[in-house]
């Protein structure tokens, strides 16, 4: 069985996200889309992006061009270990983006994820994020920042009066945050943030 890792089209990435990722959606920001094939059979995509937060690089004293987020691992049934697919995707990313120093990724606690892939790949665990605020508007879950940007207000009373009388706020459980330094100098700094890996309850 031969594994091939290479850049793929937006349509291929969209198909993989819709069919093989729990979110069923592709990220909206600028994307780096890396596809995976086994014996020329498309098995999915690894997607990197600038992420949902514009401040993703600030905690590490880096510029926005030095930090990227791993936002999707969308794979169908396959033979190659996910850790191997991810490692090859990161290798391709490093080759084509030499200025990158750090990858950030999250495991969604709400989905029961603890980051098994990252633990098996020796990522650094930074800890849990602060629970985020979400709005349910017309049955759709929207991040608080997106609501504020779109409606120019985050007032639940205004939203109930003007958009959806049943709008309400929910909070997630936070996410597990993992870091992958891309060079020795960065690793030496980032490893100081390391905490014990979370375990499945």
Fold and architecture overview:
- The chain is of the alpha+beta class and 201 residues long.
- It has two domains: 3-129 and 175-193, Gcn5-related N-acetyltransferase (GNAT) (Aminopeptidase), CATH 3.40.630; 133-171, no CATH class.
- It has helices at residues 10-20, 82-96, 116-120, 144-151, 156-162, 184-190; strands at residues 3-7, 31-38, 41-49, 67-75, 102-108, 124-128, 133-137, 140-143, 168-171, 175-181.
- The strands form two sheets. Strands 1-2-3-4-5-10-6 form a seven-stranded mixed sheet, sandwiched between helices.
- The model has no long low-confidence stretch (mean pLDDT 91).
What characteristics describe this protein?
201 residues; alpha+beta; Aminopeptidase; 2 domains; 7-stranded mixed beta sheet; 3-stranded antiparallel beta sheet
List the helices and strands and how they pair.
Layout: E1 3-7, H1 10-20, E2 31-38, E3 41-49, E4 67-75, H2 82-96, E5 102-108, H3 116-120, E6 124-128, E7 133-137, E8 140-143, H4 144-151, H5 156-162, E9 168-171, E10 175-181, H6 184-190
Parallel strand pairs: 4-5
Antiparallel strand pairs: 1-2, 2-3, 3-4, 5-10, 6-10, 7-8, 7-9
User: What is the β-strand count?
Assistant: 10
Give the distance, in angstroms, between the N- and C-terminal Cα atoms. Answer: 36 Å
Discrete helix count = 6
User: Whole-number radius of gyration?
Assistant: 18 Å
Give the C-level CATH assignment of the largest domain: Alpha Beta
Which segments are poorly predicted (pLDDT under 50) over 5 or more consecutive residues? Answer: none
Broad shape: globular
CATH superfamily of the largest domain: Gcn5-related N-acetyltransferase (GNAT)
- Bin the strand percentage: 25-35%
């Amino acid at each position: 069985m031969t594994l091939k890792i290479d850049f793929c089209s937006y349509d291929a990435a969209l198909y993989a996200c819709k069919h093989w990722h729990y979110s069923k959606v592709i990220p909206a920001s600028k994307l780096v889309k890396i596809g995976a094939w086994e014996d020329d059979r498309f098995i999915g995509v690894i997607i990197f992006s600038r992420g949902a937060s514009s401040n993703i690089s600030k905690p590490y004293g880096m510029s926005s061009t030095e930090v990227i987020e791993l936002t999707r691992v969308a794979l169908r049934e396959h033979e190659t270990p996910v850790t191997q697919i991810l490692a090859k995707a990161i290798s391709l990313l490093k080759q084509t983006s030499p200025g990158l120093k750090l990858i950030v990724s999250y495991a969604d606690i709400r989905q029961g994820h603890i980051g098994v892939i990252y633990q098996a790949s020796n990522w650094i665990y930074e800890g849990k994020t602060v629970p985020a605020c979400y709005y349910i508007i017309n049955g759709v879950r929207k991040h608080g920042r997106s609501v504020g940007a779109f409606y120019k207000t985050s007032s639940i009373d205004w939203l109930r009066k003007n958009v959806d009388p049943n709008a309400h706020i929910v909070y997630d459980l936070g996410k597990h945050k993992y870091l992958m330094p891309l060079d020795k100098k960065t690793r030496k700094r980032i490893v100081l943030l390391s905490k014990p890996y979370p375990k499945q309850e």
